[in-house]
Amino acid sequence: MYVAVKGGERAIENAHAWLAEERRGDTSIAELSVAQIREQLSLAVDRVMAEGSLYDPDLAALAIKQARGDLIEAIFLIRAYRTTLPRFGASEPVDTGAMACDRRISATFKDLPGGQVLGPTFDYTHRLLDFKLVADGEVPDAPTRDPEPGDVPHVTDFLNREGLIEEAPQDDTPPSDLTRQPLEMPAERALRLQALTRADEGFTLGLAYSTQRGYARNHAFVGELRIGAVPVEMDIPELGFAVEIGEVTLTECETINQFKGSKTQPPQFTRGYGLVFGQSERKAISMALVDRALRWEELGEDFEGAPAQDAEFVLYHADNIQATGFLEHIKLPHYVDFQSELELVRKLRREAGADQVQEAAE
Amino acid sequence: MKDTFDQNAPRKAWMGLLAKAPEGRIAALLDATIARPGFTWLRAPEIGSTMVRARAGAVGAPFNLGEMTVTRCALTLETGEVGHAYIQGRRKADAEAAALVDALMQTGAADRLRKAVLEPLEAESAAAKAARAAKAAATKVDFFTMVRGED
Asked: What is the ipTM of this complex?
């Protein structure tokens, strides 16, 4: 039962004013600009773009500032803004084979065309706090070397030539869009990938880790991980041809997984796929592992009852905005609901108390 | 070969270049070259989004990756040429400058604009890409085999 009540307006206004003051912090310390967040906290910006499902570094940086660094709150702001935008269309599928790679590594082949390019990675750092960053420091220019000409082909392309990995047949059916229709089960792979790419990083990481620990183990190798910019091309109806409308930085992970073979398939490797806005390899690898676990049915594998195999469990709990909305709503007034519970418990206690008195008398 | 030549290729190329130009750069180059001609809006600058798609496993069936912000506009010069712009981000002034260049590239001013606007944009974009590629190349691993212990 809902009962309308009024009151609290002044308290809410004052709470918001105090929030603004706390957001600013100590005014003797220089204020953070949106451009500083965009440039210097770029991995937080990338996470907000990926899970907010909107590529715009300036908006993501603004959201982080407004949310006082609470990234889920920032993602919420971006999701809310996104719904106000008219959609002009959909792009051609991006060609990650043509990526200008900042980073490209393979855990399965040491020597491969294009080589192992480490890029600006935290790997191999000692994870010791660097107190030089406390002081303002000039950063020396990163060393350069002449790039070798030539393409950087996907690792799965070479395996595919030998037939050792399952085909990923190209098909051009327009994919369903979970921002337009409610997500319903069973969800085809295109919908699962859309849900996973915007899924909470922590939730996806936990599920992916559970597959490594044995809950639907799928023996993943990182066939390839690449980070870099790809152009985005969209068909312009008024012109009758497609043009490049911009460029996005993506992280892509292709896993190569063991597969025993089935009645119809000879033994071969199978694929898991992760692709995320921005630079986020933890998320991209996690997405690829969970994508592979969710493919058990189409590959004729057994359902082991593992959480990562259960599409309904994964997809209905992976969105941190849905989750936080439902979770946090329980802090809002439930006075009437609780009043009725209170009445019920008092009544039950009275009845139980009466029984006890009766037992004692007998 | 004449039959297969894409007559839209040059326009596709300059529109793509204009869409990726840094903020304010088109206007700076355009205004240093010619006075802006009069025009009327066919579609005033408008901010919206494009759903970016990708393919499962990089090569398979398409899926929706997420949206990006886009600004678009269309205008007609007093001499009748129509210019369009679809550019990444929320940048109405840049969209206007891009649509003007697109329209002017269909006029007698095309050669001047190619030299004074498109070629510098192309050179700057190539230099930025090359600088990043050179830093990436410096982090490429050169494997070497250690001498083995046995004789």
From this structure: 0.92
